[in-house]
Amino acid sequence: MGRIFRCILAGLTFAGCVGVTRPSSAPFDQERPGVWTVLAPMPTERGEVAVAEAGGQVYVIGGFGDWLQPVGSIEAYDPATNRWSGRISLPIAVHHAAAVGLNGKVYVIGGFTGQVVWTARQELFEYDPGENVWRQKASMPIARGAAAAAALDGKIHVLGGSTDRVTNAHEVYDPATNSWSLRSPMPTARDHHALAALGGKLYAIGGRDSFLGTAYPNVEVYDPATDSWRVAAPLETGRGGLAASALDGKIYVFGGELPFRIFNATEMYDPATGRWISKAPLPTPRHGTGAVSLGRRIYVMAGGRQPGGSRSGANEAFEP
After folding, report:
1. Which residue, 76, 82, 33, 40, is CA-closest to 57?
2. What is the pLDDT of residues 68-82, one digit of tens each?
3. Which CATH superfamily is domain 3-319 in?
4. Where do the structural domains in the chain lie, given as residue ranges?
């Protein structure tokens, strides 16, 4: 998104951008819709967060606070006790960052600083839960926010995102060498998309080219063995701001937004059949959230309740 549009978006947010809830358009699973559980809300409401799991804890990082103010604080959720606790803040306050849990640590990549005029970042920070410290690592080659990231084969893949325009960049970080390399770019340049790793491949899902621009239903699958992409069955409805996580050989996506519309969709993709089906909807419709799988559940944290820069403290878990 360009700087001028960010100002327009901020104005819409300050004025109160209320959206109509949009359900999933995919066929509904009558036999096994799944079950949602509403859990202890986050201490701090926020949107456009980064979410990752490490050591059995779910970490919610950064995001929007009041009036699009970037948040640097970190809150950790323990599913075993249904309780939240604070952690040492990120060195810089960012929103629209990406996060990945890998080898017991949390990695936070890129994002934007700024409240109305946003500046894309390229920093990578590593959080060690045992020591409760952040360490800065090698920066991404391309500064960007609203990218998507996932771990695959011990490395972190960062796809898409934007500075003043969307990119299809595909950069890979290796924690063992603290270095970055380039891989085959995504076929579709986009931001606010979701990314999930399943079966040794990466699934890039949805996204958009701007808030009022094209929203993509595209699902593109990356195979690291051949450094190549293929197209999979698209979403029934294109949208940005959705979250994704894999569990038991399936991919689940949650929420999302279009201008003046907010989604409560829960949708499942089965690679064996190549079909999308809808499940029990999110109790709290939202976008700019994050989802992680832990045990038999997928935890969906925070996110905006209206299109644009809104926020919530929602903490809900889906069990297929």
Report:
1. 76
2. 889 999 999 999 999
3. Kelch-type beta propeller (2.120.10.80)
4. 3-319
Tens-place pLDDT, residues 129-161: 999 999 999 999 999 999 999 999 999 999 999
Beta strand 112-113 pairing with 20-22: unpaired
0.90 exceeded by pTM: yes
Residue 10 has pLDDT above 80, yes or no: no
pLDDT of residue 17: 56
The closest of 186, 191, 281 to 241, measured between CA atoms, is 191
Interacting residues of 200 by C-beta distance below 8 A, sequence separation 6+ = 152, 153, 223, 224, 225
